[in-house]
# Entry
Amino acid sequence: MRRRVWVLATVVALLAGASVMGVGEDGGLGRIAYTLPAIADIVEVKIERGDRALVLRQIEGQWSIAPGGHALDEQAHRDLIDTLSTPVVMDQALEVGESTPARLGLGPAATQVSLKSKTGVTRFRVGKLVDGRHTFIAPLGETVSYRARANLPGVFQRPLNLWRNRQLFDRKYADMAAVERRQGARVIWRAERADPTSPWRLVRPEGMNVGQREVDAVANTLGTLRADGFLGNIGDHAPSYTIMGESFDGARFGVALEPTRGPLIRGRSTPGDTFVSLPRSRVLFLDAQVSDLRNRRLFDLSPDGIRELVIPRTPALHLKRTHDGVWNLVTAGRETPADETRARDFVAWVAQLRTAGFPAVIPESAFAETAEAAVIRDDRDRQTTLFLGAEYRNGARFVRTSARPDEVYILSPSTLERLGASPDDFIAAP
# Structure
């Protein structure tokens, strides 16, 4: 008898729990009149969390953060629109007892939301999410809680500082016509290009062989720069340099940055004079001196334009491409098929060789004795030779090319080791 009473009591308790935390659609309560308005009827959203609040306003179909009219983060905007695309209905009504708010995540610390529509204001607290599709809410001033058919925490429990669009400039890399570094009013360096497919050229200072990848890094970082946070007005901002961009439509934009120290760097973006904190990992790409823009590539060659590659060691490696685009291995004047993948990858690697650095001092003995490290012939039968000089230090060597004999580079030991590849490595499988 006592066992049956215990079983019945357990069943009753489980049913009571299911009435609160269950995921059934209607809970046997019939249609509930209380709903949250659809986004089309809402003109203002206020989100409160403790003593902090965020206000979103819809003006002529566009949502922004007030005051200031700041654009919304794309994902935050999408979640808001999608979740409230239609009125949010309730599928359970729960009488609130003393322990109910805490169990449903509706205590005093819960996020409070106010949806102002054309007919009034709907205020409620956002509680726990159930099964990813339902949320407990508590209308302010009422003694009943509801389960709403929507993932409301996914919208309204987003950190308040992540609602604002952190993209500083509405630009893409293809928009960038020029980029420059300024020290106060003085231009330290400036790179320009004629169109999105043209190479960058350094117009100030003139004459330097500028690296395309190096300028690309600065231009792309600036155009896509995202703030880690917004700082409001700060009175002690002391920028050490400014990176400015210019688009093909003539618009100018940029950021004045403090010295690159610590994980976050303070800056002021223009236009708009917005003070932001930026991640050091991104600012490092912007903090480029003139010397950082030097072309680090040894050859201005495309792998597809190379017809022949010779590494004149013993035994020499000689790869030659046929008119059909197939790579052959040349041994004692005789051509045999090479392993196509290995040959193609090796030629592409050589074409894109980059220096490990530029020596500050070049001794007279650097090229007292030289050896050919690589000989490249292109489709137009032009030859470029890589000359190997003396040791720089720790196994690295001085090198230069016939195309730019006045430029001296450093090749690392690992690069030199790979250049010494054996012809046996490229023999095609039978």
